[in-house]
C-alpha cells in the first residue's frame, strides 16, 4: 500500500540535510506516451478549461487527499493517469468532438473526464469507488454535461441506463455514442466482452489497457499459436487497432507493466456472421472446431462442396455456417424448422445436430446473439437418429446417477477440478463446489444447464420461462464473472426430453 503524502498546503521545501529523513514524495515522473504517430512537444500537465485545474502528479495527490487521505486500491486497478497529454491522445483516438455522448468507465480523479468535457462531449461516467465518484462530483459540480453513476461496470446494465441518457442528450435523434476509458486492468477482458457487441449503441470504443492485453486483442492473424477465442470474438464484433504504448511511469501508483491505447471500431449488429460455435475453438481448424456438429468426413465434404480451406477466417466462417446449422425455433417439435424468436425478440435459434454415435457429446443449441445452451444427448435416444440432415434428435439433459461421484464442471464449459478419487463410501455426494463459485446440484434429479452468450437484456425470469417447458427450473444462477452466462438447474422428470 502506498501512503500518500498530504500536500495541502504544500510545505516549504526544507534544505536537504543528511540527518533529516526524506519525507517528500518522489518527483513527478517524466511523462511519456510513445505514440505510433503524432509526437507533439507539450508540457506534462495541461490546464483543463472545464475543470480549471491541472492534472499532474501533485494535483492527483491533492485531489486524492481532498476528502481525507485516500490510498489507491489495487483491487480496483486504481492507477491514475498523471499525463494530460495521454488523456488528450485518448480523446483524439476516439475522434471525440462537440456534441458527442461518451461513456467513461472509472473516471477516478476526473483527469480524462476533464479532457472529454474540454472536447465538448457529454459524459456518462460509471465509477465503482464511492470516494472517487464523490470526488469527481465535487470537481465538476452540477453540470448538464456530466452524469456520474456509482456502479460496478461489470454488473451494470449499460443498455437500460445509458440508452435513455443518449436519447435525451442527442435530442432523440439516432446517434451513436463512444466509449473512452482508462480502464482498471483487471476488468479489461470483461469490459471488452460487454461493450463490443453493442455496435447498435457505440460507434467506437477506445481503451487504455495493459500493453500485453492490447497487443493480444489487436492481433488479427489467426495462424499464430497465441490466437485465442477472444480474438475471434474481438474481430467478429469490431475492427481493433493498436494505437500507442503508454509507459508505466505515467501512472500513479506506478504499475508493474506498461499500458497501451487500443481502439475498437464496432460493427453493426446486423452484419454479424452466424458463427457462434467457432468461438469454442482456439484455432479455427474447422474439422476440429466443429466436430461436435457433424462427423469429420461430413465437415470435409461440406468444405469441399463450397470450396473452403480447413483453417478459417471470419468471412469464410460466415459462408460456411449455414451448411452445418439450420435455423429453427427453440421450441422445435421434431420438425426442426420452427421459427420462434428468442425471448428478447432479437434473433432466431440455430439448431445444431450432434455427431453420430457420440453419446455424451455436448449438443449445442446456438443462438447468434442470445444464448448458447449446452445440453447432453441422452443415451436412450442414441439409436433413434444419426443423420445430421434428418429431423432433430430428441435430447435430454444428461442424468447423473445418484451414487456417481460429482464430476467437475468440465462438461459444463468450466475447467474440471482435479479431485482425489475416494472410495465410494467416502465420496461426497452433495453439495460440493466447482470453480466459479457454483454449487453442485443437491438433488440427483436436478440437471445443471450452462447457458452462455446471453443477451445483455436477458433476465433470470426469461431464462426460467424459456426452460420451464422442459421441466421444473429449480433456480437460475446468473454468472456475473462470465460475460452473459448463467447456470440453471432443471428437473426434467424421468421421461421428459429436452427439447420436447
Ligand atoms: C486506472 S483508474 C483510471 C482513473 C482515471 N480515469 C484516470 O485516468 O486517472 C481506474 C478507475 O476505475 C475505477 N474502477 C475500478 N473497477 C471498476 C468497475 N468495476 N466499475 C467501474 N469503475 C471501476 C477505479 O475506482 C478507478 O477510479
UniProtKB/TrEMBL annotation:
Annotated EC: 2.1.1.-
Compositional bias ranges of the Basic residues kind: 416-428
Keyword terms: Methyltransferase, RNA-binding, rRNA processing, S-adenosyl-L-methionine, Transferase
UniProt-annotated binding residues for S-adenosyl-L-methionine: 79, 81, 106, 127, 152, 182
Keyword Transferase: yes
Annotated region described as Disordered, given as residue ranges: 1-42, 383-433
Biased composition (Pro residues): 7-19
One Pfam family here: RrnaAD
Top-level taxon in the UniProt lineage: Eukaryota
Domain called Ribosomal RNA adenine methylase transferase N-terminal: residue spans: 86-268
UniProt signal peptide: none
GO molecular function, one term: RNA binding
InterPro entries named among the record's database cross-references: KsgA/Erm, Nucleotide-bd_a/b_plait_sf, RBD_domain_sf, RRM_dom, rRNA_Ade_Mease_Trfase_CS, rRNA_Ade_methylase_Trfase_N, SAM-dependent_MTases_sf
Protein family according to the UniProt entry: Belongs to the class I-like SAM-binding methyltransferase superfamily. rRNA adenine N(6)-methyltransferase family.
PANTHER family registered for this protein in UniProt: DIMETHYLADENOSINE TRANSFERASE (PTHR11727), RIBOSOMAL RNA SMALL SUBUNIT METHYLTRANSFERASE, CHLOROPLASTIC (PTHR11727:SF27)
The protein's name: rRNA adenine N(6)-methyltransferase
Amino acid at each position: 500500500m502506498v501512503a500518500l503524502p498530504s500536500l495541502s498546503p504544500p510545505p516549504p521545501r526544507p534544505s536537504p540535510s543528511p540527518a533529516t529523513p526524506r519525507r517528500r514524495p518522489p518527483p513527478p515522473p517524466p511523462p511519456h506516451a510513445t505514440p505510433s504517430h503524432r509526437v507533439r512537444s507539450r508540457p506534462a500537465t495541461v490546464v483543463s478549461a472545464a475543470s480549471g485545474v491541472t492534472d499532474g502528479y501533485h494535483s492527483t495527490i491533492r485531489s486524492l487527499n481532498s476528502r481525507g487521505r485516500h490510498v489507491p486500491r489495487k483491487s480496483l486497478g486504481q492507477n491514475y493517469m498523471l499525463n494530460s497529454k495521454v488523456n488528450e491522445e485518448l480523446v483524439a483516438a476516439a475522434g471525440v468532438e462537440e456534441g458527442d455522448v461518451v461513456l467513461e468507465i472509472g473516471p477516478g480523479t476526473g483527469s480524462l473526464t476533464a479532457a472529454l468535457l474540454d472536447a465538448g462531449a457529454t459524459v456518462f461516467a460509471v465509477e465503482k469507488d464511492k470516494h472517487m465518484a464523490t470526488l469527481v462530483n465535487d470537481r465538476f459540480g452540477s453540470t448538464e454535461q456530466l452524469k456520474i453513476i456509482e456502479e460496478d461496470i461489470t454488473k451494470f446494465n449499460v443498455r437500460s441506463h445509458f440508452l435513455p441518457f443518449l436519447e435525451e442528450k442527442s435530442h432523440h435523434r439516432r446517434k451513436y455514442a463512444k466509449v473512452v476509458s482508462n480502464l482498471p486492468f483487471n476488468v479489461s477482458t470483461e469490459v471488452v466482452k460487454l461493450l463490443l457487441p453493442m455496435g447498435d449503441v457505440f460507434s467506437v470504443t477506445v481503451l487504455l489497457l495493459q500493453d500485453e492485453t492490447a497487443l493480444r486483442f489487436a492481433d488479427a492473424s489467426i495462424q499464430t499459436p497465441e490466437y485465442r477465442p477472444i480474438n475471434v470474438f474481438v474481430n467478429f464484433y469490431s475492427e481493433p487497432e493498436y494505437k500507442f504504448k503508454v509507459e508505466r511511469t505515467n501512472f500513479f501508483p506506478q504499475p508493474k507493466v506498461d499500458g497501451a491505447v487500443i481502439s475498437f471500431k464496432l460493427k453493426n449488429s446486423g452484419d454479424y456472421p452466424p458463427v457462434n460455435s467457432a468461438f469454442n475453438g482456439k484455432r479455427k481448424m474447422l474439422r476440429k472446431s466443429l466436430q461436435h456438429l457433424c462427423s469429420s468426413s461430413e465437415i470435409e465434404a461440406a468444405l469441399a462442396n463450397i470450396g473452403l480451406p480447413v483453417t478459417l477466417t471470419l468471412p469464410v466462417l460466415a459462408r460456411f455456417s449455414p451448411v452445418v446449422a439450420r435455423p429453427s425455433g427453440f421450441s422445435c417439435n421434431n420438425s426442426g424448422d420452427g421459427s420462434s424468436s428468442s425471448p428478447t425478440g432479437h434473433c432466431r435459434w440455430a439448431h445444431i445436430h450432434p455427431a453420430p454415435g457420440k453419446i455424451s457429446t455436448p449438443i449445442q443449441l446456438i443462438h447468434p446473439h442470445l444464448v448458447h445452451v449446452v445440453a447432453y444427448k441422452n443415451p436412450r435416444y442414441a439409436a433413434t437418429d444419426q443423420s445430421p440432415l434428418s429431423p432433430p434428435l430428441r435430447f435430454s439433459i444428461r442424468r447423473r446417477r445418484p451414487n456417481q461421484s460429482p464430476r467437475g464442471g468440465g462438461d459444463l464449459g468450466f475447467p474440471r477440478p482435479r479431485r482425489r478419487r475416494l472410495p465410494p463410501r467416502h465420496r461426497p455426494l452433495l453439495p460440493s463446489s466447482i470453480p466459479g463459485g457454483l454449487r453442485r446440484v443437491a438433488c440427483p434429479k436436478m440437471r445443471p444447464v450452462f447457458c452462455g452468450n446471453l443477451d445483455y437484456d436477458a433476465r433470470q425470469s426469461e431464462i426460467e420461462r424459456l426452460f420451464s417447458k422442459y421441466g421444473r427450473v429449480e433456480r437460475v444462477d446468473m454468472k456475473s464473472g462470465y460475460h452473459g452466462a448463467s447456470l440453471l438447474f432443471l428437473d426434467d422428470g424421468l421421461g421428459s426430453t429436452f427439447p420436447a
